[in-house]
Amino acid sequence: MNPSLIAASGTVAGPGVWFLLITVTAVGYIVHCVIWPYRSCRKCDGAGRFRSPSGRAWRYCNHCAGRGAQLRTGRRLWTYLKDVSGHTRRHR
Ligand SMILES: [Zn+2]
After folding, report:
1. Which band of pLDDT confidence, cut at 50, 70 and 90, is reported for residue 1?
2. Terminus of the chain with fewer CB atoms < 10 Å: N or C?
């Protein structure tokens, strides 16, 4: 075998390594979302309400319904995956 080819295969990561890396990252992200399912609302920055210019009146944020929190995408994915697996298990 050509020595330069062996050196190249040792330094450049193959597609299998990238696949593993992406899988580990995705699983890590979903686990993170299961433990911490919420992020602060983008519209109100986690405050849950908007103050009027006078400062005396305020209204709830329509985006998060005044909770100041939003469910993260990974958590929605986790709930979806759980529903799908539960659904298939029930019908087996
Ligand atoms: Zn909000």
Report:
1. low
2. C
> How far, in Å, from the CA of 78 to the mean position of ligand 1?
23
d(CA 74, CA 80): 10
Tell me, what's the pLDDT at 87? 77
Domain that residue 85 falls in: 35-92
The alpha carbon of 88 and the centre of ligand 1 are apart by a number of angstroms equal to: 35
Q: What is the mean pLDDT of residues 18-39?
A: 94
Domains in the chain: how many in total?
1
> What type of residue sits at position 82?
K
Q: How far is the CA of 60 from the centre of ligand 1 (A)?
A: 8
- 9 belongs to a structural domain: no
H/E stretch holding 78:
helix 73-90
Amino acid at 39: R
What local confidence, expressed as pLDDT, does residue 24 receive? Answer: 96
Write down the residue that tokens 């006078």 correspond to: 54
